[in-house]
């Protein structure tokens, strides 16, 4: 229990369905399942610590939070936060790394198999209840493109952090050939890497497992997608905005890409109004609503990691730092 007059942090969880374990320092706490831009300023007005993952912090946001010291991100990616503005405002930003790596990698492979084996279309075909008996074998659902088996795949991975490495391990276990892409535009190629454009030209399936930052925004657009084989598959479990969505929708509609699966979108929640991929006429596309992270292991690990990260900051021993906003740092 805090002594009279003892400083108490005001902790505000701005979004997320995760219930954190009790923080072991004097504080007050409030939780919101989501926070809109119009609600943000009032909710952080007296906050010293904010917990968020999908709530956007712009430069203007920090002017409404004079007491804010820390933003603790519930995930690994902090692309919703203006990190330069946080630094200028003296706000430290931390993340929650490596808690969902296995889960997201499994989801990436799930999307791959769903696209390749037409799982969604064949589920609809079967449950319709009439087509099977009328048409016999439903190979027509593959539209003349016979799927490859895993041993025939050359997988390209763009983004070779913990997630990319996990996807690599799983693909190799399935006897796929794996190429790790060098950074786009790099003049040199590191040992064990393949040039960015060569990966695009060679891959039969491409996994995007990189974060979103200025160097990866629209990294794959119309030109890059033309380098892929018209029978290749693109899977994005990195971040929305890495692939130009209009370019991807166009490539799929024009038959210049075999299929795609994505769990992430440039604007979330994605709607038909803000996402060309959801227009209704985009074929060979499997989408999920940014839930690749969800598993029991992820939730338990995230709870513990966020609590430990916040408590370390309060002790003056910050961990998992993305931006160190402490003066003099």
UniProtKB/TrEMBL annotation:
**Keywords, alphabetical:** NAD, Oxidoreductase
Q: This chain belongs to which protein, by name? A: Glycerate dehydrogenase
- Which Gene3D superfamilies does the entry link to? NAD(P)-binding Rossmann-like Domain (3.40.50.720)
Q: According to its UniProt record, which protein family does this protein belong to?
A: Belongs to the D-isomer specific 2-hydroxyacid dehydrogenase family.
Please state every residue range assigned to the domain named D-isomer specific 2-hydroxyacid dehydrogenase NAD-binding.
110-292
- Report whether Secreted shows up as a keyword of the record: no
- The D-isomer specific 2-hydroxyacid dehydrogenase catalytic domain extends over 30-322
Under the heading InterPro entries, the entry gives: D-iso_2-hydroxyacid_DH_PdxB, D-isomer_2_OHA_DH_cat_dom, D-isomer_DH_NAD-bd, NAD(P)-bd_dom_sf
In terms of Pfam families, this protein maps to: 2-Hacid_dh, 2-Hacid_dh_C
The UniProt GO MF terms for this protein read: NAD binding; oxidoreductase activity, acting on the CH-OH group of donors, NAD or NADP as acceptor
């Amino acid at each position: 229990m805090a002594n009279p007059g003892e400083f108490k942090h005001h902790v505000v969880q701005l979004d997320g369905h995760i219930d954190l374990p009790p923080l072991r320092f004097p504080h007050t706490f409030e939780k919101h399942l989501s926070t809109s831009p119009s609600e943000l300023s009032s909710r952080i007005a007296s906050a010293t610590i904010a917990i968020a993952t999908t709530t956007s912090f712009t430069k203007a946001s920090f002017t409404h939070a004079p007491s804010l010291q820390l933003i603790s991100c519930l995930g690994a990616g902090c692309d919703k936060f203006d990190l330069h503005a946080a630094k200028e405002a003296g706000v430290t930003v931390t993340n929650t790394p490596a808690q969902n790596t296995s889960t997201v990698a499994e989801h990436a492979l799930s999307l791959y198999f769903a696209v390749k084996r037409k799982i969604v279309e064949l589920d609809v075909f079967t449950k319709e209840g009439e087509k099977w008996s009328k048409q016999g074998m439903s190979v027509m659902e593959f539209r003349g493109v016979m799927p490859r088996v895993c041993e025939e795949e050359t997988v390209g991975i763009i983004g070779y952090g913990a997630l990319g490495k996990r996807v690599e391990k799983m693909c190799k276990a399935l006897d796929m050939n794996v190429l790790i892409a060098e950074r786009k535009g790099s003049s040199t190629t590191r040992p064990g890497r393949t040039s960015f454009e060569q990966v695009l030209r060679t891959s039969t399936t491409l996994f995007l497992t990189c974060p979103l930052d200025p160097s990866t925004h629209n990294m794959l657009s119309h030109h890059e997608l033309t380098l892929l084989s018209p029978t290749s598959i693109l899977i994005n479990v990195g971040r929305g905005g890495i692939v130009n969505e209009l370019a991807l929708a166009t490539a799929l509609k024009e038959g210049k890409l075999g299929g795609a699966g994505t769990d992430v979108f440039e604007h979330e929640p994605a709607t038909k109004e803000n996402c060309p991929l959801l227009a209704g006429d985009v074929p060979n596309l499997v989408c999920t609503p940014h839930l690749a992270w969800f598993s029991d292991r992820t939730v338990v690990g995230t709870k513990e990691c966020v609590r430990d990260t916040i408590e370390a900051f309060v002790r003056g021993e910050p961990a998992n730092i993305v931006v160190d906003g402490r003066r003099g740092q």
